[in-house]
């Protein structure tokens, strides 16, 4: 699969809350997730956090997906059942190497997520 197809499948798996399938698309070694208020150095840690968010996930809407070689860029709406925050707009930069997502860098309004979590953010592991 091409990098864009890999990322599209990953997003579809997260949308469907199929985290085991999503995990299979992430690099087992050297994976890194960086967001405005958290960082994970393991795909398991990042997906454990994502599993915790499943309870409030209403939908994940892919608005735009584009690629430039191994770099794939997505614009998403993360729709929630958590009325105080509503929807979170995300810009995500993926880097795909050897048919696996190696790095994920997410850009969003961190204050919204911090307020939702009451300031209890996970640390890198």
Secondary-structure element sequence?
HHEEHEEEEH
Number of domains: 1
What is the second-level CATH architecture?
Answer: Roll
Alpha carbon gap, first and last residue: 30 Å
Rg over CA atoms: 14 Å
Count of helical regions: 4
Helix content class: 25-40%
Regarding quaternary structure, what we see is single chain
Shape: globular
Total strands: 6
The percent range for strand residues is: 35-45%
Computed structural class: alpha+beta
CATH fold-level name: Nuclear Transport Factor 2, Chain: A
How would you state the average pLDDT, rounded?
A: 86
What's the arrangement of strands in the largest beta sheet?
Answer: 2-1-6-5-4-3
Biggest beta-sheet profile:
6 strands, mixed
CATH class: Alpha Beta
Low-confidence stretches: none
InterPro entries: NTF2-like_dom_sf
Protein name: Nuclear transport factor 2 family protein
Organism: Marinobacter subterrani
List the main descriptive attributes of the protein structure presented here.
single chain; 125 residues; alpha+beta; Nuclear Transport Factor 2, Chain: A; 6 strands; 37% strand; NTF2-like_dom_sf; Nuclear transport factor 2 family protein
Description:
The structure is a single chain. The chain has one domain: Roll (Nuclear Transport Factor 2, Chain: A), CATH 3.10.450. It has helices at 3-15, 19-23, 43-53, 110-116, and strands at 32-34, 39-40, 57-68, 71-80, 87-97, 100-107. A six-stranded mixed beta sheet has the order 2-1-6-5-4-3, covered by helices on one side. The longest helix has 13 residues, at 3-15. The protein has 125 residues and is an alpha+beta fold.
């Amino acid at each position: 699969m091409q990098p864009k197809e890999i990322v599209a499948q990953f997003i579809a798996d997260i949308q469907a809350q199929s985290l085991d399938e999503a995990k299979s698309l992430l690099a087992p070694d050297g994976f890194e997730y960086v967001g405005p208020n958290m960082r994970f150095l393991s795909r398991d840690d990042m997906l454990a956090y994502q599993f915790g968010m499943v309870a409030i996930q209403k939908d994940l809407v892919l608005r735009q997906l584009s690629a430039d070689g191994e770099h794939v860029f997505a614009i998403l709406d993360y729709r929630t059942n958590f009325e105080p925050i509503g929807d979170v707009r995300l810009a995500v930069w993926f880097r795909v190497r050897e048919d696996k997502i190696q790095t994920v860098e997410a850009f969003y309004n961190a204050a919204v997520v911090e307020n939702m979590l009451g300031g209890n953010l996970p640390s890198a592991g």
